[in-house]
Amino acid sequence: MILYIYKASHWCYCHGFHRVSRLLTKVIFLLFNAFIPGSASIGAGTRLGYSGMGIVFHKNATVGRDCLVGHQVTLGTKVPYFSNIESFDVPCVGDNVYVGSGSKLLGKITIGHNSVIAANSVVITDVPENVIYAGSPARFVREIAGNRAILFSDD
To answer: What would the pLDDT profile of 85-99 be if each residue is shown by its tens digit?
Structure first.
């Protein structure tokens, strides 16, 4: 449901109906307690866990195709909100990425394709492709073999 409203908001934003886009963003906030502006870019096939409850995306954030984003995730900038600096230093999430619940992705970082960000991680550096990152600040945990996360192995 939230992604349908976002897509309508994104369409309005791209076609110059900025006030309607902002109105739909406020509807998303009222219904789901999430901030996903129409100017953000979310790829096809991306899903939001628990209907996107509590998700906050920066207006210039980019999420790739076929991603899964957990609830209470923040994609934002390191610059304080109240500063006068118009910052475009926001995360870019690649395709087929899992972002665990409660994770914070901050600053001008790139999350590589087929990567996993564990729950409640704080990511402030680039994440390469096919890896698992966890912790605060997030660190390398292991590589993903064959584009699949092997979280429960016998080794």
So the answer is: 666 789 999 999 999
Distance, CA of 43 to CA of 55 (rounded, Å): 16
Residue 110: φ, ψ to 5°: -125, 130
Query: Tokens at residue 151, please?
Result: 């979280």
Query: 92 — phi, psi (to 5°)?
Result: -125, 115
Q: Give the chain's domains with CATH numbers.
A: 34-143 (2.160.10.10)
User: How many Å separate Cα 51 from the centre of its chain?
Assistant: 14
Q: What's the whole-model pTM score?
A: 0.86
- Taking the alpha carbons at both ends of the chain, their separation in whole angstroms is 41
pLDDT band at 74, cuts 50/70/90?
very high
Phi, psi of 136 (to 5 degrees): -135, 100
